[in-house]
Amino acid sequence: MELINYVKDLNTNEELFPAIHRYAVENRVPIIDSDALNVVKQYIAIKGAKNILEIGTAIGYSALHFASAAEGVHVTTIEKDETSHEIARRNIGESAYSGNIKAILADAKEAELGDAEFDFLFIDASKGNNQLFFDKYKEYLADGALIIVDNIFVRGLIADDNVENKNKRKLRDKVRAFNQSMKDSEYTTSFLNVGDGLLVIY
């Protein structure tokens, strides 16, 4: 067994929402890797986060998991794709966490949340817009909030210096620039080799 698979198995817990997970796999809906998910949930519990903002709902899989991470957790999640949003609303509505999750249909690049304040931000939308999402939504965070960005390795693209496809190369360069800007910033950062890469910003 490869070391990375050994660690992944250790970091993966029993699936709480098997039907939703199965739907995502069968329909190729991008969701957070199982090992990364459980690391994020542990951060939620350790932080004692109560108000989470998620950028990128997809079908509501991660929002449901976040709501289950600890007692009294509330999640606001933004998704621009109408079909995904409707599936997420159905999944959330049929769960025990329907009162803990607010799903918003909007383009996260333009959404406004009024005077809402959050103590945890999870960014998992279009990877080329990580910097935009970070800059926009950090304004909604309380002092001492935690930010986690998923897919910072872009399925290995981040370390590939020989990308021929122009669009993929542009995406790689944008994610590289964001990762480097966070490393060079005033914030405390950790880059974790779990799932497709997690960036933890404090």
From TrEMBL:
Keywords, in A-Z order: Methyltransferase, S-adenosyl-L-methionine, Transferase
Q: Which SUPFAM superfamilies match?
A: S-adenosyl-L-methionine-dependent methyltransferases (SSF53335)
Which Gene3D superfamilies did the record assign?
Vaccinia Virus protein VP39
InterPro entries (alphabetical): Cation-dep_OMT, SAM-dependent_MTases_sf, SAM_O-MeTrfase
Matching Pfam families, A to Z? Methyltransf_3 (PF01596)
One annotated GO molecular function is:
S-adenosylmethionine-dependent methyltransferase activity
- Keyword check for S-adenosyl-L-methionine: yes
Keyword Methyltransferase present in the record's keywords: the answer is: yes
Q: Which GO BP terms sit in this record?
A: methylation
Name recorded for this polypeptide: Putative O-methyltransferase/MSMEI_4947
Native species? Jeotgalicoccus saudimassiliensis
* Lineage of the organism: Bacteria, Bacillati, Bacillota, Bacilli, Bacillales
